[in-house]
């Protein structure tokens, strides 16, 4: 009887244990190229550059993620955190900065990100090294080149080029292997296209790492850009023909990108995001040549 009861307990308890494990954050720190590492927390990524003169970190992501990362750094590296750089202002990437920062740490952000974090009273470590266009941070023989490409996602979103490992890091406005997030909340589709074109015309990178999605090559980033351009072009053309959002969501398919993650769920939402931008920012519906089935009566 004891054996039967024990078996039944394990059998019925197993689903809850499995469900709990399935919801556990997937924390890991993996070496990518040279002294550059990627920190993963579930579906989020940030970066680490390790040198003999200290560590350069990017987004802490969350307090829980930052606590795990701090413990991992203390175990694997005998170096202080010299710099913590925020990719942009969004709270799902910058929270937990106070857990990683110490008196030896300089917090970095673009001026628009720093301004927004202050104005909205975000409870994280506030930036103290603030830049406008570009910034180069050197640690020993390594460096990180931070650059602002204009509006694209949130406020003050920048690229970070880790050298000499030659790894480019961008959060949110370039995502490989997946469609952009839902209906593009906080995104500027014009800026996403312009900024992605810009990074492709600059110094070639050996590896791309995003704040979400997979790593990849320059060719992968170019394909992502082609998706943005195809999406934008299809929505713009439809709006100029006077088609409603509902019609465009039903008609626009872009089958060449069917292999991308979330294609089925998010393509109609991506269409809505571009439609909203053209309506709100470009006032497209106020043009006589775009009035059609959903024009004002």
Automatic annotation (TrEMBL):
Residues 1-21 form the signal peptide. Pfam families: Lactamase_B (PF00753). SUPFAM superfamilies: Metallo-hydrolase/oxidoreductase (SSF56281). InterPro entries: Metallo-B-lactamas, NDM-1-like, RibonucZ/Hydroxyglut_hydro. Residues 43-212 form the Metallo-beta-lactamase domain. Keywords: Signal. This is Metallo-beta-lactamase superfamily protein. It comes from Microbulbifer aggregans.
């Amino acid at each position: 009887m004891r054996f039967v009861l024990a078996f039944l307990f394990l059998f019925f308890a197993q689903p809850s244990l499995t469900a709990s494990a399935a919801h556990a954050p997937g924390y890991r720190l993996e070496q990518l190229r040279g002294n550059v590492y990627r920190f993963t927390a579930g579906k989020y990524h940030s970066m680490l550059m390790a040198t003999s003169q200290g560590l350069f970190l990017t987004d802490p992501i969350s307090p829980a993620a930052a606590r795990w990362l701090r413990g991992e750094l203390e175990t694997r590296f005998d170096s202080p955190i010299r710099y913590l750089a925020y990719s942009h202002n969004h709270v799902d990437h910058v929270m937990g900065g106070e857990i990683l920062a110490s008196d030896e740490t300089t917090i970095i952000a673009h001026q628009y990100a720093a301004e927004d974090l202050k104005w909205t009273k975000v409870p994280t470590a506030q930036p103290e090294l603030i830049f406008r266009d570009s910034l180069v941070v050197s640690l020993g023989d390594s460096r990180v080149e931070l650059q602002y490409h204009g509006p694209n996602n949130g406020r003050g979103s920048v690229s970070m080029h880790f050298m000499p490992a030659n790894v480019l890091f961008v959060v949110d406005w370039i995502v490989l292997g997946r469609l952009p997030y839902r209906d593009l909340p906080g995104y500027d589709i014009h800026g996403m296209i312009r900024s992605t074109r810009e990074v492709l015309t600059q110094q070639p990178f050996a590896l791309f790492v995003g704040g979400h999605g997979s790593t990849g090559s320059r060719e992968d980033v170019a394909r992502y850009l082609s998706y943005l351009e195809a999406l934008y072009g299809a929505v713009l053309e439809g709006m100029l023909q006077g088609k409603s959002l509902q019609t465009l969501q039903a008609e626009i398919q872009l089958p060449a990108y069917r292999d991308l993650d979330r294609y089925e769920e998010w393509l109609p939402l991506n269409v809505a995001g571009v439609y909203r931008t053209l309506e709100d920012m470009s006032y497209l519906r106020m043009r006589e040549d775009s009035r059609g089935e959903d024009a004002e009566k």
